[in-house]
Specification:
single chain; about 0% strand
Length: about 210
């Protein structure tokens, strides 16, 4: 891969640190406080669709669900092989982080009943929104630097639309969607780290020869 296509060395760590801090902050503020749960529930109840509209919107959730996103991520990783195996591996690593992290956190993090009307399991982060973020992360690793801005803007919009759909259907709260965006940051940073791994050794070996 050309040097000019590699990210700045600090960018992966900025993304991973920022995403982790955002994820922790959202959990502590939105899930572990009374005011956070009240705000989350108020937004959910305000935006939640009626039954008739929800039935019409539900098929969209399947069309852009995790299974479809996993297939698209695999295709992006295969396309990444044209730019080198580390690029393909980085795209896959970023996607896996986005796909696995929500499932682990939803099981590991408890949701205390502070302002909820009844005991509820933790739903932070959203797996569906994180699956869309997984595809965005894979693309951000694979595409040339000149296209990353457009992919980032369109991808962020796609995650936002999926998030709005999930809230409208009553499946997730606003904090769940924001947490998925943080997971996306961590996934992107991880993908960039894997992509850039070994590049310094390659450059050194080439110079020595």
């Amino acid at each position: 891969m050309p040097d000019h296509d590699l990210p700045p060395p600090a960018l992966p760590w900025v993304l991973i640190t920022g995403g982790t801090a955002g994820l922790l902050g959202l959990y502590l503020l939105a899930v572990r406080t009374v005011s956070g749960q009240r705000l989350d529930n108020a937004v959910l109840w305000r935006l939640e669709a009626d039954t008739a509209l929800a039935e019409r919107l539900l098929p969209l959730l399947t069309l852009a669900g995790p299974v479809v996103m996993i297939v698209l991520c695999a295709l992006v990783c295969l396309a990444g092989l044209r730019r080198g195996w580390r690029t393909a591996l980085g795209a896959g690593a970023g996607a896996v982080v986005c796909l696995v992290t929500p499932q682990v956190l939803k099981l590991a993090l408890p949701r205390p009943q502070l302002a909820d009307p009844w005991p509820l399991p933790n739903s932070l982060p959203s797996g569906h929104a994180a699956a869309v973020a997984a595809l965005v992360c894979a693309l951000l690793v694979v595409v040339p630097r000149s296209a990353r801005g457009a992919v980032l803007i369109l991808g962020s919009a796609a995650v936002g639309v999926m998030g709005l759909l999930l809230i409208t259907l009553g499946h997730h709260r606003l904090s769940d969607i924001a947490a998925s965006a943080c997971v996306g940051m961590i996934g992107w940073g991880t993908g960039l780290l894997v992509q850039a791994s070994g590049h310094g050794e390659t450059v050194t070996a080439s110079a020595a020869s």
